[in-house]
Structure formats: C-alpha cells, structure tokens
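Predict the assembly for these two chains.
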Amino acid sequence: MNLSDYQAHFLEFLFGGTSKPVQPNSEVYRFAVEAKAVRALRQGYPTVRALVGPADFEALALDYFGMIRKQSGDWGDFGWGFPSWLLSHRISDRVPYLSDVARLDNYIGRVERSQYEEVNVDSFAVIGEDLASCSLILNKGLRFFRSMYPVVSIWEAHKSETPKDTLSFAQAKRMIAKGRGQNALIYRAGWKGMAEVIPEKDLVLLESVRNQRSIAEVFGDDVLSDTSFTHWLQGMIAKGVIVGAKAIH
Amino acid sequence: MRNRQATAQSNLELKKTGVGVGLRSEHYQNVLEKTPALDFLEVHSENFFADAGIAVDILQEVSASTPISLHGTSAGLGSVEAVPDDYLRKLKRLVDRVDPILVSDHQCFTWARIGGRLFHGGDLLPIPFTEDSLRHAVNNIDRMQQCLGRQIAIENVCAYIEFDQSDFDEASFLGEIVARTQCGLILDINNLMVNARNGHVSNLENFVDRYVESLDHSAITEIHLAGSTPVGEEELLIDDHARPVSKAGWQAYERVLNAIGSKPTLIEWDNNLPSWCELLGEAAKARKAQRRALGRERSHESL
C-alpha cells in the first residue's frame, strides 16, 4: 500500500467506512476521534442534547460523524450541517422540532464566533428628508429565521436544569399542541449569543433591511414622524441588530 | 523556506530557561485576574481560528502581557495532501493577531482524500519514516513557513501503531526534516517515554538518551512535559495529558537538560485539569530543574 492509500484508508477506518484496521491498535485513534466528535457536537448543540438525552445524542453524533465526516481542521467548525442532517434522520419523526432547535443552537454558536459589528451612531446622520435614498444597515453577524415550532421557548426552557419547571416549557407545550411556531432573532449581548421571539412584522422588516431596500420602501415616506418606528429603531440599535445607516442610489 | 536566519520572527524572544504552561478555557479567569509569573503560555491554535468571539478576544488581551506559543494540532504536516489554503489563512490571521514567540505543530498526518473529497482525521495520525513521507512533510512544512513568513517547529508524536517499512529511525527522520526545511524541533519527552513503554523498550534511560543524542540540539526550540494515566501492563499507555509529570518524566527531563542545555519548557495538561495553582506548581518544578541544569552548565564552563 503506498503512502497516499495508507492515509486514505486510515481515515476511512476512522469514519467507520471500513471495519478493517490499517494496523493493529488503529482503533485507539478511532475511539479518540469519535470522542472528540461527540464532544464537539455536545458543545455546539446543548439544547438538542438536553432534548434527546446523552445516550441518544451520542448515537446521533456518531451517526453524523460516520456519515458526514470531518472536513475542517477546526473542531469548532464540525457540525455546521447537523441541523439539516437531522431532518432526514428517523429521530425527526419522533421529535419533529429537533432540526429547528439544532438550527437555533447552531446560530447561537455562529453569532458567538462571528465578527459582530459595532453601532456606528454617526452614520445615522445620512437619514435626511429623502428616505428613498438611504437604508438601514443590518448587523452581518446576527441571524433570524421562521420556525413552525416554538424554538425559542424550547431553547429557553432547556437552559434550565429542570426544563419542565419553567414557564417557557409550558408555553412551548401549549404552542406545539396548537401547531404554532415562533420567529427567532439571534444576536449577541457582549460575548454571549441570545435568542428572542420577534413578531412576523419585524422579521419581514429585517429581511427588507437585509436586502438593502430604502427606508421609504420598507417603512413608508413619513415614518420619521411615527413614534413607534423610533421606538422600534432604538430597540434594534440597543441590541446591535441595526448598526447604522447609509446613502443608496 | 531554506534559510532559518531569513525568517521573520516575533519581536519577542524566549530565553532558554523560559517555562510556560498550556492555557485552557477553564483557566482563562485566573490569567485575566492576575498576569502569571510565567515566561509564556501555550494554546492550541485551532481553538482560536474563529473570526471573533470570547476566546479570540481573551487571547489577544493575554498576549499583550504574556508571550504566546501557538501549538497546532490539526495541520497534519505529514499528509500527502497539501495543508489546505483555508487552514493556512486562519493560522496566518492568528499569528498576526497575537505575534507568538513560537508556531508549532506535529509530525503526523491528518488530511486525506476519499472519493476525491478532502477530509480531516481529527487526530495526530502516525506516518512511516520513509523517503516518501519525508518528501511530503518537507513540502508541507516549507509551504507553512512560506505562508507565515517565519520558522515553525515540529514535535515528535506518540504512535500507537508500528510500520513494517521504514528508511529512517524517528530521530534521523526529524533530522532530515530540519536539514531540508530549517524548521525547529519540539522535543516531547512524554511522547518518547510513551512510545518506549508501548514498544516494550527495556532500558528507558538509554532509549531517551540515544534519541536525544541523535537530534540536532541547536534546532530544539522547546521541550514538552506531560503526564499520562497509568494502565495495566498489557494495555497501551495513552498520551492523555491528564496527570502531573511522573517521577520518571522529571528524571528524563533533567538528563535531557544535561545533554542539550537549557531549553524553553512547556508543561502540558489537557484533560482532568488541575487547579491553576497546581499547574503553576508543575511549572515551578521545571524551573528548579532548569536552574540545577544551568548550575551544572556553569560549573562545567568554569572548569
């Protein structure tokens, strides 16, 4: 076996693609790598683990590792595809909201590791009379998405050691029974990733801001006289969701 | 990178009696509260590859007061495949951020192509000491040194498997790499001892002495010390960095210092982490051993 084949075969063995070890004791490496894969996913998906329990989570993590394998040198990158992979896993028949919860966990992790823009207060000076020629700037580091499930309440409840004792758990249970979902906004407070529910109207507004549509298009021509807009904008700036304004043509 | 002198290094230079410990997230608070009386702190490079976030910010803050040694665990410099550009780009960004005193990784492979796609093995995977392995290791080390614009160092690893075929023993293999790339060496004494124990070497002292004797001492930029959890006689000893340095480890360290002179030394402890104070206690032991060795060096010089 040449060197290239040896190295490829070794990785195939680590990923469980072949049960035939390259050399005696190769399983030492497989055990070590599997343990690292489980640990990486455990750190990245704490809510998923809390929902399914440690044993099922480990089985899921090992399935994922064997199927998707590792493609980056950074364990912190491992598992970005876990939420979508879960969709096709049989566990989603039993826990249909698991993929969306994983997505929320994943976004929290991404927000915590991404370049989070600072608010540029001076830039808001470009907002003049012609609202069609300026737009708001959305923080590139944040995330938001729609879910058919109450993902934020589930996430909030499972931060507790005893999720069932929380109000969020009761709320999530009620919403699941009624088939209602939540829109999640994921942002950073200091270094910590946070999630909160936002109304559909806000989510549509943020999508429009992300698409760099003008303030006039998104909010209307006379929005500056609307106090509810001012409050909304102040809240978004305080959370670092909106980080500035810019002139557009 | 053929010329060690020509490589751009950090503005900082580590004294040969420097002692440092591995900084892990559990001890961030200790280091932020009080700058440790250490010559350097070692971190695993890949843990700081993120664009931003708490780990990156803390490391940058710590690096302002304590020199950092960046120790990679994932470059896989012995891979047939070239270390990917994305990996090198992230490492370069980290080097620019913290201006480390040393950049290092291991003599092992980890990248390989399966069905045309590149994968990462996630561990320090052993390579045979052949001409073919040497060629790929040299290419990857050269490439990394070119990319970073500085010298790197490579470390001897624990290998739990044996190869039928080899063109070199490990020390000669490392010597060839140094000669061809002008990289530095990290001498991990615990890895040597684990390999000797798993290979049923009867005379450990002789094994370590002969290994060290065959290295280019001037290339050794750092010594690593660690402890492993003892196992039964028939079991493999795993280099788990989960214990204090053993008595045999300290003895081997002193012999190495006597043989090669003082070198910057790192205490590695990655699992079953002790308190920060206990870790600093291990560093203090290394410092005492360094002083004893330095004393012997000076008394030899005065003769």
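Residues 153 and 183 of chain B are 5 Å apart (CA to CA). Residues 276-302 of chain B form the longest helix (27 residues).
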